[in-house]
Amino acid sequence: MVRQLVAPVLFVILAVAGCRQPGYFPMSDDSDWELVFRTVDVAGAETVEIKRVPGRLKVVTVAEDTALGRYRIAELSRDSVRLFTLYFQSRPGGMYMLVPWIAGDLYAGRNDWILLLARKLRPGKAWYGNAYHEQLFEVVAREAATVPAGRIPGCYRIAVRTEEDAWPGSLWFAPGIGPVKWEYRSTRSRDGISWERVETAELVSHTGTPEQ
């Protein structure tokens, strides 16, 4: 149940941090992503917006110790209410993320950190988030993403799958910007009509000092 709450965090992910992989997760100590969270229902040609609220993913501090090395701490908020605190760390394999309220302990071991974005992206590339194979990430396409910030070409769309369907959906990472969109789709039946609910977190703007 707790893991199912992580899905919205993915855009956090989706919007939060930095891997030194060239171009696709540029993150600095002052990175700040302005977001919009949207929920719409789709039935045939009809689309009904259910909810739209502002959000933000912001790096709030940088920490370093002998056990973990250097890592960034970011906060995700929605409608001015803080939702989560997330930890990010760049390693040779890519960008790792830790959600402390799931892992329970910053120092619990490297397997509690999830490999969110691997290096050397290409369509078809896939990797597991941790040694327990609880999350499978797969690059399914390279395409443009249209978000409130505009139409952003050259994004990698990454599908996230788990056996428990706890991290479902897709993430888009843009060159020079990082995560720009998270999306989750579910299908339901209501009053004899099949409809699809689409939940997204989308980039409105991004600021930060580019790393050299």
Structure overview:
- With 212 residues, this protein is mainly β.
- It has one domain.
- The chain has 2 helices and 12 strands, in the order H-E-E-E-E-E-H-E-E-E-E-E-E-E.
- A 12-stranded antiparallel sheet has the order 6-5-4-3-2-1-12-11-10-9-8-7.
- A hairpin with a 2-residue loop joins strand 3 (69-78) and strand 4.
- The radius of gyration is 17 Å and the shape is globular.
- The relative contact order is 0.23.
- The model is unreliable at 1-5 and 11-22 (pLDDT under 50).
Low-confidence stretches: 1-5, 11-22
Radius of gyration: 17 Å
What is the molecular shape?
globular
User: What average pLDDT do the residues reach?
Assistant: 83
Short overview:
With 212 residues, the chain is mostly beta strands. The chain has two helices and twelve strands, in the order αβββββαβββββββ.
Structure characteristics:
disordered N terminus; 212 residues; 58% strand; 12-stranded antiparallel sheet; globular; 2 helices; 4% helix; mainly beta
Helix/strand layout:
Layout: H1 9-13, E1 32-43, E2 46-65, E3 69-78, E4 81-91, E5 94-98, H2 100-103, E6 114-118, E7 126-128, E8 136-147, E9 150-161, E10 169-174, E11 178-190, E12 193-207
Antiparallel strand pairs: 1-2, 1-12, 2-3, 3-4, 4-5, 5-6, 7-8, 8-9, 9-10, 10-11, 11-12
